[in-house]
Amino acid sequence: MARVAFVGLGAMGAPMAGHLAAAGHAVTVYNRTRSKADHWVRQHDNASAPVPADAAEGAELVMLCVGNDHDVREVTYGTEGALATMRPGSILVDHTTTSAELARELAAACAEQGVGFVDAPVSGGQAGAVDGRLTVMCGADDEAVFDAARDVIAAYAHKCERMGPAGAGQLTKMVNQICIAGVVQSLAEGVDFARRAGLDTAQVFDVIGKGAAQSWQMDNRSATMAAGEFDFGFAVEWMRKDLAICLAEAARLGARLPVAALVDQLYAQVQQRGGSRWDTSSLVQLLRDP
């Protein structure tokens, strides 16, 4: 079993850290809101620390799951950041969805200290984190470092694969979000069309869900879309953050993302209606109530 520090106890991070503790790892957590860390400690009978550097001291692996590029830098660098106390041979694993540029920056910073690095964004949502069935897309310059990290990540993943060097995990997550954006909008249109046509939406999606149209979004979101329920799941504001990363990287690569760009603007309209924290399936609201 490993000594692990886990930084960031949001909707994803708290259950992920919980699976590590349940697997027998010695876990020290840090969260910017101290009350969340205290609550986690009461639930899982492990430890917390007041700053990331204290959590990381003596840890074999330090896992991050925070909000964005700025947040990652804040908990990694400086006298209170995780790298201040990480020892040579330890590994920094970043589960945050960030830019590929940041992943390469962190890999270089870690290499200067003899620390391994894996960018490891996840897919599967809060339900996947709670159930311990996340898909983890990894980038690592050193395959041995990835192998060591994978053994610990296994506590909350059903699929964990190295996609290439540092940054490749983040690039793969961008592909994931690009694909999801189009699927969610198409599903929203299908749900609204079925409703307006007077069809039984539950029956419709039970039938077509057994054919070529099937998707995770259809299986898990068609019913709640039809019911107009959005107070759960992956928030619109986080999807817009991810799509901004995708669009910026696409501009750098010379790739065209017309559907992703359109869906991003539709999410902006959802935010204007006060839906920043609604689930991404709330796109259907724009169709139900134009």
Account of the protein in words:
The chain has 290 residues and is α/β, with parallel strands linked by helices. The protein folds into two domains: 3-165, Rossmann fold, CATH 3.40.50.720; 171-288, N-(1-d-carboxylethyl)-l-norvaline Dehydrogenase, domain 2. The chain is built from 13 helices and nine strands. It has helices at residues 13-22, 34-44, 52-56, 69-76, 100-112, 125-131, 143-153, 168-196, 201-208, 216-227, 236-253, 258-272, 283-288; strands at residues 3-7, 26-30, 47-48, 61-64, 91-94, 116-119, 122-123, 134-139, 157-164. The strands form two sheets. The protein has a six-stranded parallel beta sheet with strand order 3-2-1-4-5-6, sandwiched between helices. β8 (134-139), α7 and β9 (157-164) form a beta-alpha-beta unit. The longest helix has 29 residues, at 168-196. The mean pLDDT is 98.
For this entry, give a set of tags:
290 residues; alpha/beta; Rossmann fold; N-(1-d-carboxylethyl)-l-norvaline Dehydrogenase, domain 2; 2 domains; 6-stranded parallel sheet; 3-stranded mixed sheet; 13 helices; 9 strands; 53% helix; globular
